Amino acid sequence: MMIKKIRNLLADNIELWTGKRDALTPPARKNFVGDGDFRQTGEEFFKYFVELGALAPGQNVLDVGCGIGRMAVPLAGYLDKSGSYEGFDIVKKGIDWCKLNITRRYPNFRFQLADIYNKNYNPKGKYPASAYRFPYNDDSFDFVFLTSVFTHMLPPDMENYFSEIARTLKDGGRCLVTFFLANDESMRLMGQGKTRLDFKYDCNNYRTIDKDKPEAAVCYDEKFILDIYKKYGFKINGPIHYGSWCGRPIYLSCQDLIVAVKD
Question: What pLDDT score was predicted for residue 202?
Fold first, then answer.
């Protein structure tokens, strides 16, 4: 075990010394947040945060499901000392890496481990997502975002998170969330076999690719999601930005993206 740790440490340092990665990019063996390029994906969403979410340098930001800092890294060069970043996730190794490598350089960037049960990532978690209270005060944030979070959550968990977003977001604050949304167009494209994900199991208000492990990928009925926004006091800001996941020829990103304002 000790020999393996030493080899991993040497490999990580070699990546830095040879310029294969920078100090704010995690080693490939530790990255659990997707197959895309870590830096490019972060920069892509940073652009959406500023251009679609109107994020300003002096604002307070919450990253729900922050992973291993993919979205935090580009924000570290943007938020000034009057702004702040808070992130939480259920994967300890991601939080540990972020604290060591990001918070050490940017003290206004803070990360917390959330002891939420997840069959794949945290099977010993204490709290169900449907009952978890975000560890922040009411009206704390100007901007909240969730990337690839509700695409892996079922309705009771997702609704609780919406409630917590509404509680912790200031009046007039914005939230940016990604989804897989089922509507006439995406259903038609799925029927034509053009989708990257086959949401063939219909579970009333959502669809999934795996009936035994539905959280593997969740596609919500668009009307159901829009009703949830209304229920928790949000107004959709601008059009829905549809994604390429179902085979659309015109799209913004991979997943569908919604920006909303707390009334």
Answer: 97
Residue 214 region by backbone torsions, left for phi larger than 0, else alpha for psi between -120 and 50, else beta:
alpha
Give CA 190 to chain center in angstroms.
Answer: 24
| Beta strand ranges found along 26-134 (DSSP E) | 60-64, 84-89, 109-113
Cβ count within 10 A of residue 10: 10
User: Quick one: angle between helices 222-231 and 155-168, nearest 10?
Assistant: 40
Find out whether 95 and 120 touch, Cβ atoms under 8 Å.
Answer: no
Give pLDDT tens digits for 51-109.
999 999 999 999 999 999 999 999 999 999 999 999 999 999 999 999 999 999 999 99
The two most distant CA atoms of the chain are separated, in Å, by 56
Q: Is 145 helix (H, G, I), strand (E, B) or coil?
A: strand
Single-letter amino acid, residue 27: P
Q: Which stretches within the chain are classed as H helix?
A: 2-17, 38-51, 72-76, 92-98, 155-168, 184-191, 222-231
Entry pTM: 0.91
Tokens encoding 57: 């340098």
CATH topology for 31-262 is: Rossmann fold (3.40.50)
pLDDT tens digits, 179-220: 999 999 999 999 999 998 999 999 999 999 999 999 999 999
Domains of the chain by residue range = 1-29, 31-262
The number of residues in the chain equals 263
Structure confidence at residue 27 (pLDDT): 87
**pLDDT digit string, tens, across residues 96-125:** 999 999 999 999 999 999 999 887 777 888
